[in-house]
Amino acid sequence: MCSRSLAGSAVMAMLLLSACQREQRESRGQPLAETAPTFVQLPSVLIAGSQPAPADPRGKLYEGNAYHISEGQRLFEQFNCSGCHAHGGGDIGPPLMDDEWRYGGQSDQIVASIAYGWPNGMPSFADKLTEQQMWQIAAYVRSMSGNVPKDVASSRADELASTPPLTRTPQQPIKGEPGGGLQGVAP
Amino acid sequence: MIARRLDEIVCASLLWLFGVAASSAAAAPPLPVAPVSAAPAEDGQWTMPAKNFASTRYSALDQIKASNVKSLGLAFTFSTGVARGQEAAPIIVGDTMYVVTPYPNYLYALDLKNGGQLKWRYAPKPVPAAQGVACCDYVNRGVFYEGGRVFMNTLDGQTIAVDAASGKEIWKARLANINLGESITMAPLVVKGKVLVGVSGGEFGVRGWLAALDAASGKLAWRAYHTGPDKDVLIGKDFKPFYAMDRGRNLGVKSWPPDAWKIGGGTVWGWISYDPALDLIYYGTGNPGPWNPEQRPGDNKWTDGIFARDPDTGAAHWFYHVIPHDLYDHDTINELILLDIPMGGRMRKVMVRPERTGYLYVIDRASGQVLSADPFYEHINAYKGVNLQTGRLVTVADKEPKMGKVVRDICPTAPGAKDWNPSAFSPRTGLIYIPHMNLCMDWQSTQVSYISGTPYIGANVRMKAGPGGYRGELTAWDVMRRRPAFKIKEDLPLFSGALATGGDLVFYGTLDGWFKAIDARTGKLLWRFKTGSGIIGQPVSYRGPDGRQYIAVLSGVGGWAGAIVSANLDPTDPTAAKGFAGAVPDLKQRTAPGGTLYVFALPGR
Fold first, then answer.
1. In the structure, how many helices (H) and strands (E) does chain B have?
2. Tell me, what's the pLDDT at B50?
3. What's residue A129's pLDDT?
4. 8 Å CB contact between B90 and B497
5. Where do the structural domains in chain B lie, given as residue ranges?
6. In what order do the strands lie in the sheet with B459-465?
7. Helix A131-144 and helix A107-116: axis angle, to 10°?
8. Is residue B379 helix, strand or coil?
9. Per-residue pLDDT at B577 exceeds 70
10. Is B203 marked active-site?
């Protein structure tokens, strides 16, 4: 019909899309970076002569999206993350549901840990996961400590009901957020 | 014979089984003894974690006894510098004590002539990444002394011979590959110039083995795998298992889905005993991997069973499959106490094994025949018993894990009615003192993929207190009467070893740090001392250079039971620590990490 209604529906569609960002599904991450991680910011270290870079904005995108968190939850089991971290309470690896982070609790820091591993036992998954999958797992890990919006946290449990639902998990503020640099003390 | 309290009620059928006439019920049955060749006369030392090849953990020293234990006090302490689970037994040779720590596996020599002063420290510097493949804290269960050398293992898979006088490294051999999930936590055992060492990693899809190194050079003498073709398992013409279920060719391949044996577990991280008369070593193999039993249909040989082998060649002589097709991670790696017991009018060579299943097995150590399997743990609901005709353990269908459902209230749990922490046998009472647990669990099987270097488990578990609410128990088991003489209920699961002494005392520790002495005949608590952290170590006794009797134990919570404290886990998630967090959510309020040696003695003369 007339161009005005077309424009109107376009505006409506944009509004709807932004409202539904939590349900937005991307089968491939944007920007495409399915090779080795490109980020260089290492968590929880002092940078001589400089200040930590601001947090990678992709963290917020993944943390605000229910689909990505749901995928992260699935991958967390499938790639044996739960074998070492249980369902947030920890085991061989440290807990992920509390407010203590050896190597940083921001999404980009968690992605760095997944990608590079750590000398004290955390394996590197750079050969096993795409960068998008790492961001999805990181977003799910953030949800374990209540650090994602309540309306995107997964309401399903993949394991036997052992912890309070993630949608009701109280937030554990991460020390030093944002910007990194300040972290909890490793036990 | 020593005086002993007689029970009014005598089970005639049991006495009949052991060939004692019912009319002689008024007299106590004769007591079992440890074979002298495996348990020589007391020398006041403690040169291996199990005290002797018969694994009695009994010291005949008797200065400390019921009448004076009240005045037992601290002689000295020593900080190990590592605040992780201290599972090792201190080793005492002459006037020196050797203590090994959890990762980074420091080895200390302490001068007993000089109040426990540090003589030397040896640091093997294991690869830190090994911490990521240690299922249940970074523990080490002790060192072994022989011929001027201390033999030790490191978490990252090395076996090292250290000069006992100087602390200098003599040789070092790398046996395990952490990139395959392999690690080493057990104490080595040296038999006939061979250092016997097994691999840990049953939660990482390793292919389990036991290796023998030449004690002089560290060169590999033989390695027996516990899955795969017979030639790898060192099964040959000498192999004569007692039960039909354990006979056949290449069962280590055939009892698995195709290729699953290559990542099938069967580790060795517990205890080895040795009978010099029969010239056989005995040890148990660990759980099949993954825990999820539906991913490995079949009997899963040679996991979860007991091997008898020739120490020179490793050739298998017999095998008893304690748990074919394990459903619950019930590694059969516990201690095997070698005893000779009067039975049917003669002394029968047996070994006694308090098992994770909750049954105490008496097994003919020449043939591998199971003579009896009695429940020392009273709340077993996952098993109905052992069929002594076929040797097979009878499982309970309702409690069998199935994918897609949660099976609730399975007793005992994955760590079993009794885990690795060894019991002690006193020849004076004929009792075996078993420190164990009373826990049950909910289990959910999940499909798991093998990714090397990551856990290969496939189960979500949460544990809880068993019926009655008490979580730990010390059972004094009467071997001849086949029943408990007494039981002591403990609030927390017992994860420490036990020590029996000639003064008729039994020592053990609790997860919140109490070190206790009880009367070996009645179980009465006679003395206790609060150590700095929870106790999961193995108490020992020795005669010091001054002629006095000492009791030593390492304090430092950790291991599977105490990982919630040592690794600072979050008990909000009861599946943390493979479900053990659910059983001890209060432990962080009751103790803190630590690592201290405590040595006790009576006041000086």
1. 6, 38
2. 98
3. 94
4. no
5. 31-601
6. B406-410, B439-445, B459-465
7. 120
8. coil
9. yes
10. yes
DSSP 3-state of A68 = helix
Which of B454, B462, B593 lies at the smallest CB-CB distance from A162? Answer: B462
Chain A / chain B CB contacts < 8 angstroms: 122
For chain A of 187 residues, list the mean pLDDT of each consecutive stretch of 10. 56 52 66 48 71 84 95 96 96 95 90 93 94 96 95 83 70 56 33
* Better-predicted residue by pLDDT, B168 or A155: B168
Please, which residues bridge with residue B91 across strands?
B98
Q: For this structure, is B287 an active site residue?
A: yes
Residue of B203, B406, B578 with shortest CB distance to A160: B406
Long-range CB contact pairs, B516-519, < 8 A, 24+: B517/B69, B517/B72, B518/B474, B518/B488, B519/B66
The answer to whether residue A20 sits within a structural domain is: no
Which residue's entry shows tokens 């128990």?
B473
Pairwise CA distance, residues B140 & B163, whole Å: 19
Contact residues of B toward A, CB < 8 A: 128-135, 203, 406, 442, 444, 446, 448-449, 451, 453-457, 460, 462, 563, 567-578, 581-582, 593
Q: Which residue has the tokens 């429940």?
A: B375
Sign of CA dihedral A71, A72, A73, A79: positive
CA–CA dist A95, B176 (Å, integer): 28
CB contact under 8 A, B572 and A88: yes
Q: Which two tokens stand for residue B491?
A: 């609030």
What is the model's pLDDT at position B357? 98
Are residues B201 and B219 in contact, defined by beta-carbon separation less than 8 angstroms? no
Q: Which residue reads 């991670």 in tokens?
A: B329
Task: Find how far residue B68's CA is from the centre of its chain.
Answer: 30
In a domain, A27, yes or no: no
Alpha helices, H only, B240-389:
251-254
Each residue of B201-230: pLDDT tens digit?
999 999 999 999 999 999 999 999 999 999
Q: β-strands B459-465, B472-478: how paired?
A: unpaired
Split at pLDDT 50, 70, 90, the class of B546 is very high
The secondary structure of residue B427, as a DSSP letter, is T
Domain total in chain A: 1
Residue A145: give its domain's CATH number: 1.10.760.10
Q: Is residue A26 part of a domain?
A: no
Letter string b/e over residues B447-462, b meaning 16 or more CB atoms within 10 A of that residue's CB: ebebbebbbbbbbbbb
What pTM was computed for the model?
A: 0.91
Contact of B503 with B66, CB cutoff 8 Å: yes
Contacts of B460 in chain A (CB under 8 A): 82, 87, 159-160, 162
CATH architecture of B31-601: 8 Propeller (2.140)
Q: Is residue A36 one of the residues assigned to a domain?
A: no
Domain with A153, as residue range(s), is 41-187
All residues at 6 or more sequence positions from B231 whose CB lies less than 8 Å from its CB, including other chains: none
**B212-222 b/e (C-beta count within 10 Å ≥ 16 → b):** bbebeebeebb
B287 touches B318 (CB < 8 A)? no
